[in-house]
């Protein structure tokens, strides 16, 4: 009896662990019935879900080694949910696939340049080192647009640089080695702090595709606590435009959403996520605070050491476009976003 009594505390599941598991399992079981556009806490939890599930993935092997069977069993559904979403990406990190080569390849870079208008040389270096055929820029300031026009005209003979001086975060730009036509820039004026969007026809060796460079508003930018409705409305408008396309689509941009958002599921019902299909690792792109000029959101706190924790920059494509490679570049060039580089076959 004394042995049983001494083992009970060691084998019991700690209350914080039980509460963590119960609350997350309850949320996962019911979130399809909890629209994030109507419930800001649900939108926030969706944005944090990849981080909230990580402790379970780390804890389960440790609990099994410690022979804490009940505690491990309690966390296994959460660990399984994490691996269901991210297991393929993590497996490719451990066993990188051989790169696929194609004579019809196109490389593309999506890069939020953080409306930077002073420290432009690091941004130029990032773009040059990426050596992408097409570059989609978000938050393009006026001075940055002038600099890119002057410095990259030879590398990128086809350009559409459209800063928005009244609200620099809404500036957008396209740089291309292939011809661009039918270029359109727009903002959804009814949205608070509306950002910019672009659409162009890209001619890649005689094959035309629809190229989109989009930047839906962040739920925290609309004057209310994490209100996902304006972002969702913008995604709905973008998807309506995409539905009218007769060509294959390459959809790039800073989407201000994680891959657990309802809007992500809406997009991937029609287009696939290139990084999810061929990328390795978690693909986090934000926040990148290594450079002092990127720390606008830190309120002076010393957070330059913090690694990126969210994947909000994406490249999506029609099934007629084949994903070859995808990776997040390690240098932000002074932006608070890391660039995403992809290679596809047209």
From TrEMBL:
<protein>
    <recommendedName>
        <fullName>Endonuclease/exonuclease/phosphatase domain-containing protein</fullName>
    </recommendedName>
</protein>
<feature type="domain" description="Endonuclease/exonuclease/phosphatase">
    <location>
        <begin position="109"/>
        <end position="337"/>
    </location>
</feature>
<dbReference type="GO" id="GO:0016020">
    <property type="term" value="C:membrane"/>
</dbReference>
<dbReference type="InterPro" id="IPR036691">
    <property type="entry name" value="Endo/exonu/phosph_ase_sf"/>
</dbReference>
<dbReference type="InterPro" id="IPR005135">
    <property type="entry name" value="Endo/exonuclease/phosphatase"/>
</dbReference>
<dbReference type="InterPro" id="IPR051916">
    <property type="entry name" value="GPI-anchor_lipid_remodeler"/>
</dbReference>
<dbReference type="Pfam" id="PF03372">
    <property type="entry name" value="Exo_endo_phos"/>
</dbReference>
<dbReference type="GO" id="GO:0006506">
    <property type="term" value="P:GPI anchor biosynthetic process"/>
</dbReference>
<dbReference type="GO" id="GO:0003824">
    <property type="term" value="F:catalytic activity"/>
</dbReference>
